[in-house]
Amino acid sequence: MKTPSRSARWWRDGARGLAVLACAAGAALALAQPHAVRHGDFTLQSSVVSSLTIAEETARQHGITPAEHTAVLNVVVLRDVGEARWPIAAAVDATRTTLAGVQQAIALREVASQGRVSYVGSFRFTPREVLDFSVSARIDPASPPLRLGFRERMPPTQLPTPSR
Asked: Taking the model in full, what pTM does it have?
């Protein structure tokens, strides 16, 4: 049996791939918990992290401006290829909705780094706010999109900036 390459082993665990920003920041907060939905050979994953937990260099590389009460939504679409999972490009949209029903689109931009592709968008939040997120990814225009919904409670106060 062929041994998977180093990158194939890295992507086999899709949650690790999703948490690229969180791991780079050294973030170990509840907001970094990934959410996922799988359909056939595809998995749509998403997580939310505080923008201040992301290291300066990583934030700059990904076009993120760290600010108090600003969070980052990270989305990745993975395709199963044998025992490995590979990130693929897709048309990705995301919205956040408050418990009062106020909906706002989250502008996502594609980030390609080290042969991996993900989608990142920043948004403002109120401390302790509960937000419902809706993420959709269309891999093929002729097929229905993958859809993922989840709820997050934003932190009560902004977390300290990591040592840089």
From this structure: 0.76
